[in-house]
């Protein structure tokens, strides 16, 4: 049995890109960590698919690319790829193998692998594939962070602000909205201003695009009428 994988030499900062290496061969893990580290990327190394899955019990706090050996004891690289897909984990994967064949390569690529490189691999080819994977991962990670921030802004809206927003989306003017809600036009303007400010929306089309991203339905805003304090 191989010795446990060494701890990464550099602990990634929150939001920093990193490379996850899974290979049951200790010398290969160390060589990969050295090569990838020389390119400036923090590396986390694992001796098995089980070790990686255990690590992923704690969500990653930044984009990552997975460099994965195909043939390993226990769960193989292809089986790990399938397991990650089933759990919704969409890490870009660069496969490495000394025993690859065309059907295996096709299967991995069809399942979403970024690259399938034979051992011994070309250093530049591997680093190029990792760079591409990290670029894709960074884009996806940033989109996820933006979506979470947008959801938080929406959740910060009061019920009244959401009602004003829904009437606004129906095309009603401030006075019409005030009549529907039984409040003053000045109060509607205040709620509308706060709502747009909280959502960080500069215009109605921008607000609509935000709500579409969140999947917020165009509800019937007439559900709560009559004066409301605040």
TrEMBL record:
<protein>
    <submittedName>
        <fullName>Response regulator</fullName>
    </submittedName>
</protein>
<dbReference type="Pfam" id="PF00072">
    <property type="entry name" value="Response_reg"/>
</dbReference>
<keyword id="KW-0238">DNA-binding</keyword>
<keyword id="KW-0805">Transcription regulation</keyword>
<dbReference type="Pfam" id="PF00196">
    <property type="entry name" value="GerE"/>
</dbReference>
<keyword id="KW-0597">Phosphoprotein</keyword>
<dbReference type="InterPro" id="IPR000792">
    <property type="entry name" value="Tscrpt_reg_LuxR_C"/>
</dbReference>
<feature type="domain" description="HTH luxR-type">
    <location>
        <begin position="150"/>
        <end position="215"/>
    </location>
</feature>
<dbReference type="InterPro" id="IPR011006">
    <property type="entry name" value="CheY-like_superfamily"/>
</dbReference>
<dbReference type="InterPro" id="IPR001789">
    <property type="entry name" value="Sig_transdc_resp-reg_receiver"/>
</dbReference>
<dbReference type="InterPro" id="IPR016032">
    <property type="entry name" value="Sig_transdc_resp-reg_C-effctor"/>
</dbReference>
<dbReference type="InterPro" id="IPR036388">
    <property type="entry name" value="WH-like_DNA-bd_sf"/>
</dbReference>
<feature type="domain" description="Response regulatory">
    <location>
        <begin position="18"/>
        <end position="134"/>
    </location>
</feature>
<keyword id="KW-0804">Transcription</keyword>
<feature type="modified residue" description="4-aspartylphosphate">
    <location>
        <position position="69"/>
    </location>
</feature>
């Amino acid at each position: 049995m191989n010795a446990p994988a060494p701890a990464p030499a550099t602990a990634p900062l929150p939001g920093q890109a990193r490379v996850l290496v899974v290979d049951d061969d200790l010398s290969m893990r160390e060589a990969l960590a050295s090569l990838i580290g020389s390119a400036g990327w923090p590396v986390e190394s694992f001796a098995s698919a089980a070790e990686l899955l255990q690590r992923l019990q704690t969500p990653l706090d930044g984009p990552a690319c997975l460099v994965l050996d195909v043939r390993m004891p226990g769960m193989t690289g292809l089986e790990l790829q399938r397991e990650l897909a089933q759990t919704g984990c969409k890490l870009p994967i660069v496969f490495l193998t000394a025993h690859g064949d065309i059907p295996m390569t096709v299967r991995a690529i069809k399942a979403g692998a970024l690259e399938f490189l034979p051992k011994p691999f070309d250093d530049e080819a591997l680093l190029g594939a990792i760079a591409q994977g990290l670029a894709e991962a960074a884009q996806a990670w940033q989109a996820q962070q933006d979506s979470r921030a947008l959801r938080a802004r929406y959740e910060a809206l009061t019920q009244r602000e959401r009602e004003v927003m829904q009437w606004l989306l129906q095309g009603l003017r401030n006075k019409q909205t005030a009549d529907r809600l039984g409040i003053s036009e000045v109060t509607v303007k205040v709620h509308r201003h706060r709502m747009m400010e909280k959502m960080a929306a500069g215009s109605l089309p921008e607000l609509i695009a935000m709500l579409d991203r969140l999947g917020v339905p165009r509800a019937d805003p007439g559900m709560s009428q009559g004066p409301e304090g605040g």
